[in-house]
Amino acid sequence: MNVNNFLQSEATQFVGTAAANTIGLVIGTIHEDIKALLQIPDEYQAISIVSSRTGTVAQAIAIDDAVKAVNAKLLRFEMAIDAGKQCGQGCLFVLGTENISDARRLVEIALKQIDYWAACIYINEVGHMESHVTPRAGEILHEIFGTPLGKAFGVIGAAPAGIGIVAVDQAMKAAPVDIVWYGSPSHNLTMMNEFSAGISGDVSAVQKALEAGKQVGCELLRVCGITPISITKVHEVCGPDYVKENYTPTSCLKTDNTSDER
Q1: What CATH class is the domain 3-120?
Q2: Which residues of the chain fall short of a pLDDT of 70?
């Protein structure tokens, strides 16, 4: 197949890539058999596809932001045991729109936002730690995590799962927040080696809780391996082979001034 011709097709479009091994695609006229397999309603003439190997929450928040700007409906959301070397999950999002222009615009916004949110996924050769806060949850986050619409929402989690439990426990002790969703190997995460929780509350309380959980989670990962580094900085700091000791990491530990706050 001529890739250049494929990428120029009006019916099927490669939109771009983003952090966390994410690819964005659009299908303007989906085959009826695939439409039936994916259970896509007839009213949607085009679909947006966002698929990643590492993480789910950064992608979900990014798509939630995109749907606030483009009229679209979440048709399919799945997590897969993947995440490359960092335990945890990958993800697949399929959204329906009325036309291919909206489908492409949605993916463009989502990819840009994924690059932003994925900066708070920290990895080493053992696993990963992530924490994300959005001040106003929209329809996508409500549908996936059951969080109240319009309220601050955050997710904190880590892999291996034991580290995630300790991180979530520390978060809950740090501020008055409510757990609205959780995932463990046997609950919501399809046997992935990860534990995470979605929390809701006042935005300042959610931020304080996640900061406390993030610090202890990264400290525990560092006991098992190298200091966790933002997934968006891996190649820049470490080169293609990030599993090595001799580098100055972008750490999510509170004492590191290069840490991103999101």
Answers
A1: alpha beta
A2: 1-10, 82-88, 235-262
How far apart are the C-alpha atoms of 89 and 79, rounded to whole Å?
A: 6
Neighbours of 51 (CB within 10 A): 17
Cβ burial 213-238 (10 Å sphere, 16+ → b, else e) = bbbbbbbbbbeeebbbbbbbbbeeeb
Q: Give yes or no for a contact between 185 and 199, defined as CB atoms under 8 angstroms apart.
A: no
Each domain of the chain, given as residue ranges in start order, spans: 3-120, 122-238
User: CATH topology of 3-120 equal to that of 122-238?
Assistant: yes
Which pair of structure tokens corresponds to residue 191? 């046997």
Instruction: Give tens-digit pLDDT for 27-46.
Output: 998 889 999 999 999 899 89
**CA 226 to CA 249: how far, in whole Å?**
9
The answer to whether 55 touches 89, Cβ cutoff 8 Å, is yes
